[in-house]
Amino acid sequence: MTPSDIPTRDRLIVALDLPAVEQAEAMVARLGDSVSFYKIGYQLAYAGGLPLVRKLTDQGKKVFVDLKLHDIGNTVARGVESIAKLGATFLTVHAYPQTMKAATEARAGSGLKILAVTVLTSYDDGDLHQAGYRLGVSDLVEARARQAQLLGIDGLVCSPEEAASLRKVVGHQMRLVTPGIRPAGAATGDQKRIMTPARAIAAGSDYLVVGRPVVEAADPKAVAEAILVEITPPLAA
Ligand code: C5P
Fold first, then answer.
1. What is the number of the ligand 1 atom nearest to the C-alpha of 212?
2. 212 with 189: CB under 8 angstroms?
3. Ligand 1 closest atom vs CA 210
4. Closest Cα partner for 77 from 120, 111, 50, 114?
5. Which of 63, 96, 137, 188 is deepest in the core (most CB within 10 A)?
6. Mean pLDDT of all residues in 11-22
7. What is the pLDDT of residue 187?
8. 117 bridge partner residues
9. Atom of ligand 1 at shortest range from CA of 215
10. Which atom of ligand 1 is least distant from the CA of 191?
11. Would you say residue 28 has pLDDT above 60?
């Protein structure tokens, strides 16, 4: 499937950033048929949430496991194999060549797609310098995106502001998955580089990751449905 064939409903990934499995299951029940794709990250995974991956996929949902793996190749490969067996659709790794190579080899033959995190969006040039890097954020993002593509990585996690320029670097086969999405009028929280759902799709995002604006809403289902309406392409005349 090329990114342009992705059904609109699958483009919204709701981040289940909740402290307990029961709360996550209650949120999934409230969202019902409106949401088909969920993200499970550190908070829920380390609170016993990994079995939820299989439970959700058994219900026909897709799951993005956001554990941003990075370790020696053998350890990454074994971890990727375990996540693939749970039926996950996406798994994140940090964009280091050994890690990406191990991950793409280990997911071969499964339905799992590997997403690379180029540079964490909380890092600026000063943070990279402090961590010992020579390149600044934009050069390192571009260099890692190129490496990711050469190593067979399926997609990149990036800020919506990076989507348009990364699209030029990696073309249309790689999926671009963007957090930092805020429907107009929603609280920004700690996200600094944000875009509305429609603008992020127009900038080249394939998938939108939305957490707090949905899971902390008084009516999460209404917010999710409004996002889907906002990103539904107009019917061809
Ligand atoms: O609540 P909010 O919509 O800001 O949630 C965004 C989700 O995307 C969180 O789960 C966060 O960890 C994740 N994320 C992010 N920025 C990145 C990578 C992941 O906000 N660069």
1. 1
2. yes
3. 3
4. 114
5. 63
6. 98
7. 81
8. 94, 157
9. 1
10. 4
11. yes
pTM over 0.85: yes
How far apart are the CA of 236 and the centre of ligand 1, in A? 33
- Are 103 and 91 in contact by the 8 Å Cβ rule? The answer is yes
CA 152 – CA 101 distance, rounded (Å)? 8
CA 180 to centroid of ligand 1, rounded, Å: 6
User: What's the pLDDT at 168?
Assistant: 93
Pick from 86, 81, 89: nearest CA to 54: 86
* Distance in Å, CA 22 to ligand 1 centroid: 21
The distance from CA 166 to its chain's CA centroid, rounded to whole angstroms, is: 15
Are 42 and 16 within 8 A, CB to CB?
no
Mean pLDDT, residues 178-203: 88
Which tokens in the block code for residue 65?
Answer: 């496991």
From the CB of 79, is ligand 1 less than 6 Å away? no
- Ligand 1: which of 64, 69, 141, 209 to mutate, most ligand atoms within 8 Å of CB? 209
> 157 in ligand 1 pocket by Cβ < 6 Å?
yes
Q: Which residues are catalytic?
A: 68
Q: What is the pLDDT of residue 122?
A: 85
48-104 pLDDT, tens digit per residue, is 999 999 999 999 999 999 999 999 999 999 999 999 999 999 999 999 999 999 999
What is the length of the chain?
A: 237
SS3 133: coil
State whether the beta carbon of 199 lies less than 6 angstroms from ligand 1.
Answer: no
The single-letter DSSP state of residue 11 is G
